[in-house]
Amino acid sequence: MSLIDALPSPSFKRRPWHPNVVLLCLSGAMLAAAWLLSFVSVAPNRIVSGTAFGMVDAISWPGAALVSLLFIAMAALSSVPTSRHYRAMLGIIILTLLLMPFGLMVAGHWLVDPSLPQARLGIGAAYWTVLFVLLLCLVELRLRLGLSRWWPTLLLAGVGIAWWGCAALWLDRLALVQEFQAREGQFYQAIGQHIALVGTAVGVSVVLGMLLAMLMRRYQRLQKIAFTLLNFLQTIPSLALFGLLLAPLAWLAANVPPLAALGVSGIGNAPALIALIAYSLLPMVRNTYIALEEVSAETLQAAKAMGMRTGQRFWQVRFPLALPVLLEGVRITAVQAIGLTAVAALIGAGGLGTFIFQGLGQAAMDMVLLGAMPILILALIVDAGLGALADALRPGGQE
Amino acid sequence: MIELSHVSKQFGDDIAVEDITLRIAKGKFCALVGTSGCGKSTTLRMINRLIEHSSGDIFLDGQAIEQYDPVKLRRRIGYVIQSTGLFPHWNVARNIGLVPRLLKWPATEINTRVEELMGVLGLPVGEFAHKYPHQLSGGQAQRVGVARALAADPDILLMDEPFGALDPITREKLQDELAKLQARLHKTIVFVTHDMDEALKLADHLVVMRDGRIVQQGTPLALLQQPADPFVESLLGGLERGLKQAALTRVKDHMTSLGPSWPAQSRIPADFSLRQALSMMLRDHCDRLTVVDQGDVPIGELSLRRIVKEAQLDKVSQRDA
After folding, report:
1. Is residue B302 domain-shared with residue B226, that is, in the same domain?
2. Cβ partners under 8 Å of residue B114, min gap 6
């Protein structure tokens, strides 16, 4: 400390301005996006690309004023960052999220011609941008307020349910909702298939990954071979791997009747699962191996010196201490598998990818969204859930 | 009783420990001292078979340690290390109760024992039982480490630089408490340290090691009076040796009865060390102190001349012997 610092500071000195730059910029970005980007688009039918409308056209001046006010308030709050202000900002974010479907309702009422039954409302770039930036704000606020990972997840789940209600009751003009209503049964089936595929692939790779990691710890030579192989598998593009599996599986199904009876064939679930498991093994094995190896040698030596047997040392010391890192591996694997399963639709395995590829084929962007949105939400939920579980299992609750 | 007879340990081509012969009688405190890498920790770990010795024999209560099941052997030997080795995912009570749990004591007995030990080591149960190791200071964590080692009431305690990572004040406090504990419990303790003062303060039997061999062993006083070679002498502090020896001698062993002469102004309790007496003389510019008992009643006196002369006499008698 220098002499100057040690002197008492004069009382008339102004307090320096320390805004939360991140939130300030994000608030500004949202304000700009709301005014400058297209708010909604209106199309007379499914195939024609729509006409874009700005915020004032969509929700009129009072609506635009309300939106601007919310974002200006956020900017103002972020310029003096106290924990009370952070809490207020959290409130504004939730309010904005809840108001978003109402904006669409108003826009639909205003802009869509009721005499055209096929006419539909598309969500504009401003909406997506604001939604994305709001999520970024949530991440920042979670860190600043020191909330656990459960909080934003619960919050988003609540907001999601509110949106769902709005969509079911009043938003039948929204293109996304129309696409959904046209294939409701298919949609639920696809979600079910998607979750089943991901669940099976992750479940199998957790068990296989643990076994492999434990074998690798015992036989050091296996380690190099296994990692080389798994790394190689990871570099094959997913589509190519599905293609590569087509021929051998078709041959197996034709020549080994018991396998065919189990439902193995060149296309469908069997190649999809094999490929998903192959991709999942690397992150799973790597994290399990590292997690088990990382446990402090001194702690393990102490366990031995206290007279714990090999099995006791593994299950009572090494495994519980490795668990948080191991769960990180499950989290990475699961999130990766949720995305990859979308591609599996191409070989007839079903899942939400079906909508994406059908939509792409028909140039119906809203149908692509119908497939992509739930994948995104699923990934976020699994990511937050498993992340929070890993946090909760840290030894002695330490961060 | 622990007995090592011509014990050696090789790691590949490296000889870590060579031809060590050592006898530690029941209830004695033995300190292994030496610079780092001299094989003192290896020697310690061979006793509970964390490291298997290459040749020679190690006996525990007269039986070769190869004849024990290593797991059962370790459960009856307490072990304390510098980094404490506490399990970070268990709270204090669970850490302490580890060995009794492994020995399948009934739960109520384990609880009683854990609470008893926490009391002995100055860890209030209400405050500490449910804390996790990362919430403890270095000194508190090491107390838990010692409590864990004592949990199943082992006869033998192996301590590998237990206080090495602590600040000087905490270290001295824990040393004092260990000395008190040992006076009460009479465990057979093997204590590894590179801190000669710590060893001189605590040990009944001092073993100086260098390059895997024992250079000299004996009582602290014997080593101070006649170090075997310049290495031992430098470990013992060179010129400071006289003071270190004085630190091991009590005032009451050198005091004379109160003479007819004028009593000295400065007073010193009888159970203080000669080193403290010398320090007091230097501070107060005097060559005589009045020795008092615990109630501050004068019981004798101590003079500088006498201290110096008796030290000389010690030396002469040593040489004659």
Report:
1. no
2. B93, B96, B97, B100, B129, B147, B151
What confidence score (pLDDT) does residue A184 get? 82
**pLDDT value at position B46?**
93
Tell me the two tokens of residue A396: 């002695």
pLDDT tens readout for residues A90-121: 899 888 888 888 888 888 877 877 777 777 78
**Structure tokens, B194:** 């590179």
d(Cα B23, Cα A278) in Å, to the nearest integer? 60
Q: Please say whether the beta carbons of B50 and A304 come within 8 A.
A: yes
Phi, psi (deg, nearest 5) at residue B56: 90, -175
Q: CB distance B102–A312 less than 8 Å?
A: yes
Domain A184-397: which CATH number of 3.40.190.10, 1.10.3720.10, 3.30.1600.10, 3.90.1150.10: 1.10.3720.10
Alpha-carbon span A397 to B91, nearest angstrom: 11
Do B288 and B230 belong together in one domain? no
A397 and B99: CB-CB below 8 Å? no
Residue B263 and residue B279: Cα distance in Å, rounded? 19
Nearest to A317 among B48, B87, B135 (CB): B87
Residue A2: the pLDDT is 53
Residue B244 inside a domain? The answer is no
Residue A395 has pLDDT above 70, yes or no: no
Given B239, B262, B285, which residue is the final one in a domain?
Answer: B239
Same domain, B44 and B119: yes
Burial B226-249, CB ≥16 within 10 A → b, else e: ebeeebbbebbbeeebeebbbbeb
Is it the case that residue B268 has pLDDT exceeding 50? yes
State which residues form the domain around B308: 249-320
Those residues of chain B whose CB sits closer than 8 Å to some CB in chain A are 48, 50, 71-75, 79, 81, 83-91, 98-99, 102, 132-135, 148
Residues of B in contact with A309 (CB under 8 A): 71
Between CA A196 and CA A185 the distance in angstroms is 17
B239, B271, B287 — which closes off a domain? B239
pLDDT, tens digit, for every residue of A117-164?
A: 777 788 888 888 998 898 888 888 888 888 777 777 778 778 888 887
d(CA A307, CA A97): 57
